[in-house]
Structures are given as structure tokens and as C-alpha cells.
Amino acid sequence: MCIMQATDTLKREHEMIERVLRLLEESARRLNAHGALPEGLPAWTVDFLRRFADGCHHDKEEQVLFPMLEERGIPRVGGPIGVMLREHEMGRDCVHRMAQALPSEDNNPAAFASAAGEYVALLRQHILKENQVLFPLAEAVLSPAADATAMARFQAASVGRCECVHSQFEADLTKWEHAMGDAQLCHRT
């Protein structure tokens, strides 16, 4: 079996998203214990989830991979694509609720922590399903030529936007991991 670049790209993005999930989980834990977070971290997390996790990663899945899988007989309704799309919507709802609870005059850290906890649980299961079920399925039905098409469509859809956002968020993420002061959060290469 040949290595599929499209699913590998998405898996690498999952790794970065999982790093943010660890930060978000620790943020929720600290907020629930009435602890403090580094100033700006909640807003940065919401921005990352909107611009990278949803705006780049989910966009590649929804606009490129899922339609290609449907063309090859993988059903949307009653199938794994429909489940993934529904979970994307559920995630967007959690992120919206986190954004509503960002620090302001009517700060509600409990609401942020609650939505963050829901999001972390949802996305961890979502990523597991994609990595262990959907992506192997994609690798089985996409030919090397279809994989190359998917990669070209990823590039065309992002027009450099995702790569730039990825680089920015990668640097910021390392900073936030260190700011949280927890060695388990710091990314190891």
C-alpha cells in the first residue's frame, strides 16, 4: 500500500490540534479549581480552534476529502461522513460557547470550562475515529492519482492561508505550553 499524503497531512494537523486539546483540558481544570490562566490564552485558543482546527483542517475534510469519498461510494447519510460532519457542527457549538464566555465584564469562567471540557472530549473521540476508521477507509478507496488530486485541492483551497496560519499557531502553541508551566504539556519532538 502506498503512503497517502492527504491523510498524512490531516493526521499531522490532528497532532497539533491534540496539543491544543491538552492546553484546553488543563485550562478547564484550572478554571474549575478557581485557578488563573495566562492572560490571553482563552482568546488564543478560541482563535486557533476557529481559524486552524475549523477554518483549515475541517475545511479540507469537508470541501475535499469527504466529497471524494462520497464519489467512491462512502455514504454520507447513515455512514461515517455524516457522523464526522455532525461532530464538526457540535464542535463549532462548543467553540461558540467558549467565545461567549471569554473574559469580559460578565466573565463566566465556569461556562468556558464547561464548553472546553465538552470540546476536548468530543474532539479526542472524533480524531480517534478519523485516524482509526475514516482515514484507513480513505486510503483503501483513494488511488495514488486521487490522493494527488486531494493534495492539489488542499493547496488550492488554502492558497497558502493554512500554511501561514499553521506556522503562526505552531510558534504560539509552544509559548502557551511553556506559559502554563506544566512539563507534560510541553511538546516533545
Description:
The protein has one domain: Four Helix Bundle (Hemerythrin (Met), subunit A). It is built from six helices and no strands. It has helices at 5-32, 41-71, 80-100, 109-141, 144-158, 161-179. α1 (5-32) runs antiparallel to α2 (41-71). The longest helix has 33 residues, at 109-141. The protein starts with a helix and ends in a 10-residue tail after the last helix. The relative contact order is 0.19.
Short description:
The chain has 189 residues and is mostly helical.
Keywords:
single chain, 189 residues, Four Helix Bundle (Hemerythrin (Met), subunit A), 6 helices
What is the second-level CATH architecture?
Answer: Up-down Bundle
CATH topology: Four Helix Bundle (Hemerythrin (Met), subunit A)
Return the structural class. Answer: mainly alpha
Low confidence ranges: none
- SSE sequence, one letter per element: HHHHHH
CATH C-level: Mainly Alpha
Shape: elongated
* Main sheet characteristics: none
Tally of contiguous helical segments: 6
- Our Rg estimate from Cα atoms comes to 17 Å
The level of helicity is over 70%
In terms of quaternary structure, what is this? single chain
In CATH, the homologous superfamily goes by the name nmb1532 protein domain like
Q: End-to-end distance, in Å?
A: 27 Å
Itemize the secondary structure elements and their pairings.
Elements: H1 5-32, H2 41-71, H3 80-100, H4 109-141, H5 144-158, H6 161-179
